[in-house]
Amino acid sequence: AQKVTQAQTEISVVEKEDVTLDCVYETRDTTYYLFWYKQPPSGELVFLIRRNSFDEQNEISGRYSWNFQKSTSSFNFTITASQVVDSAVYFCALSEEGGGNKLTFGTGTQLKVEL
Amino acid sequence: DAGVIQSPRHEVTEMGQEVTLRCKPISGHNSLFWYRQTMMRGLELLIYFNNNVPIDDSGMPEDRFSAKMPNASFSTLKIQPSEPRDSAVYFCASSSLRGKTSTDTQYFGPGTRLTVL
Question: What is the pLDDT of residues A92-108, one digit of tens each?
């Protein structure tokens, strides 16, 4: 069975600090997909990134970067020079090939960025 | 392009009443998902459809919950009768299913905040 663990329940940082959100997953499939979503205080779920299991290249998008390591079953998310607008709950999710598009979500990490 | 549309955005009702939540997926998407989010249980998948056909409803909590997708551009989630423990945010999401198994990104609607008094 698939499982996603986000051990960090809440993280508080001061603006301009770098912060890394951890995500560890479990799956028996060799083909799977990993996602990060952001849920700001307004409540909507915003898609950030999708990564398939055959693509271990790290990705950078502006201040956001993602580190995918199959050896440790981790897909961590780093925000560089954090800003107050980054304050949100961040969810990591997993979908297995053959799972019919079903997403399994982690419990989320609440990030608070303060001035 | 319009994203996933959900209505109403907020619903307050009394215990025992019927509640109907509505969702319009992104045009061209052929998979639709209903999720429920609560503090206690996080994000839970209730049911999903591929090409308007319900594929997995194992997450539907009980018979009081039902979902339909009469066509590719509309789905409903109904709770009858509603109970206070059904209070939650209900999200609808859609994606493209390529073939039978290929996974594509799910895009979420803004959610419906349901309060049952």
Answer: 999 987 666 788 999 99
